[in-house]
Amino acid sequence: MIGLPLVYLLAGVMFTAFAAMSAGDKANPKRWGNAAFWGLFAISFLFGDRLGDLGNGFLVVALALLAGTGRLGVGQPKTTTAEERVELAQRFGLKLFLPALLIPVIVLLGTFAFKALTWKGQHLVDPKQATLVSLAIAAVVAAILAQRLFRQPASAPLQEGRRLMDLVGWAALLPQMLAALGAVFALAGVGQTIGDITLAITPVDSRLAVVVAYCLGMAIFTVMMGNAFAAFPVMTAGIGLPLVIGRFGGDPAVVCAIGMLSGFCGTLLTPLAANFNLVPAALLQLKNRYAVIRAQAPTAVLMLLINMVLMYVLAFR
Amino acid sequence: MLPLIGVGVIVLGFALRFNPLLVVVCAAMASGLAAGLGPLEVLAAFGKAFNQNRYVSIVWVILPAIGVLERSGLQERARTAIRAMKAATAGRILVVYLLARQLTAALGLISIAGHAQTVRPLVAPMAEAAAEGQAPLDDATREEVKAMSAATDNVGVFFGEDIFMAIGSILLIVGFLDQNGLIVEPLHLSVWAIPTAICAFLVHGARLLLFDRKLSKRGPSLQEKGA
Predict the structure, then answer these.
(1) Does B57 sit within 8 Å of A173, measured CB to CB?
(2) Which tens digits make up the pLDDT trace of B199-226?
(3) Which domain holds residue B37?
(4) Are A72 and A216 within one domain?
(5) Rounded CA gap, B11 and B220, in Å?
(6) Residue B107 maps to a domain
(7) Residue B222: inside a domain
(8) What is the nearest CA distance from B220 to chain A, expressed in angstroms?
(9) Distance CA B170, CA B189 (A)
């Protein structure tokens, strides 16, 4: 059955290539830092399951030290100039959109098809990983198609991939690091402690107060943990179930659905939700690391207030 | 109380703009030690979770394809397409993207777009090209347009996905309520995500159109002056 291991193998091979190309990039004064960083990431993808927990721990510390001591540069492999790109855009026209649109189409078809596809009663592709496997296939197909269609050199996919990866830099690793932090926080009982504190300061005497406390608690907890999924069980067990639903008779479906969406308002506000908030800032080469959060903050705050009103109006009909 | 020290490390470290990877490692160490674990125990727990969460970083395999397309002129072609549309403004383009992202997310189609797949190669250059037609752009405004493009992607996904019954957050709610003796149908939860989704479209859509007005107040673009 095709599943995550094969996708990890693909990622591992790609990062090995990035590391090798970085090492050979004499124009980058920090080339050894880049080579070590992407090389370690490749090792994680290729051999992570054989390193042991402690081995993986040391690997993470090494990655963090490389990034934290400024060893990462930005490689600049030769690419087309702005003028050449305008000319290429004219020459290839609408054909340029073809590989770009093929990516979502393959992801879409793959996600549905792989869940249904069986051979002698066995799934060919792990149905739980259908989306990730489809994304990997789409990535390979689109890269090869684009390289052929637009007659780019054979090295272009990997060199261009490395160029973009270096632009993102250490931020590429942050979402995975934060997911791991969440696991350590859970082990240390951080969530329970915050839940206890919130509960201790929540006023329990009015319907409005508990609705506000629940929605606000979901948002604040999510800002601190970076993830509404971590906030939901703690806040709902602490305030949602006993007070909003139990004491004041709120409709569980309304309370929980809008409670979760209040948590999402927190996700829009926190740098800890790195894949949504910090990674795009790096991808778009924004000078301010927090520019995306700043752009969405007014929407997030307004939506939090609206969620409180909606829950108050809709949950107690 | 003591394990909260990790949260403090995060807040301080991010506010002072230390390298986030180092901040995260320090925060894990601080909280773990405060909870009575040994340093090697914390390191092992962190390493184990890091290894288990490798799927989070799979999205980067898309970069070679995006890179070749950029090299072949995709961003420039996207800009040309926008310049040909007289009615296109940065705000209107993003309103259309917001709606499309919310509707597809509501059908469970989250991975068909995203910051690497669509925002960097298509949406941000299109919004930027449209904004160039609205006002002379300085670097700060250019940055604002790009940041707003990424923000619109986030808002669209967040306030669309919960309308889909089989999304992770809905399943989490169903499971949690079930453990607590309450039976709720996924369909009921996803129906109650709709009012928030509509409000999110109105609020963020209005902000995008206001953004257009702010741009046009900065004076006519070079093109309109006939330059």
Answers:
(1) yes
(2) 999 999 999 999 999 998 876 655 554 4
(3) 2-52
(4) no
(5) 42
(6) yes
(7) no
(8) 24
(9) 7
CB contact under 8 Å between B67 and A164, yes or no, is yes
Q: Are B24 and A154 in contact (CB under 8 A)?
A: no
The rounded distance, in Å, linking the Cα atoms of B106 and B57 is 24
Helix (H, G, I), strand (E, B) or coil at B185: coil
Q: Which two tokens stand for residue A314?
A: 């809709």
Hey, of B68, B171, B179, which one would you mutate to test binding to chain A, going by the most A CBs within 10 A of its CB?
Answer: B68
B16 in contact with A at a CB cutoff of 8 Å? no
Residue A177 forms part of a structural domain? no
Domain identity same for B22 and B88: no
Looking at the structure, tell me whether residues B85 and B155 fall in a common domain: yes
pTM equals 0.89
- Using an 8 Å CB-CB cutoff, list chain A residues near B42: 184
Q: ipTM for the complex? A: 0.90
User: A195-226: buried (b, 16+ CB within 10 Å) or exposed (e) per residue?
Assistant: beebbeebeeeebeebbbbbbbbbbbbbbbbb
**Lowest-pLDDT choice from A220-229, A294-303, B71-80, B201-210:** A220-229
| β partners of residue A119 | A122
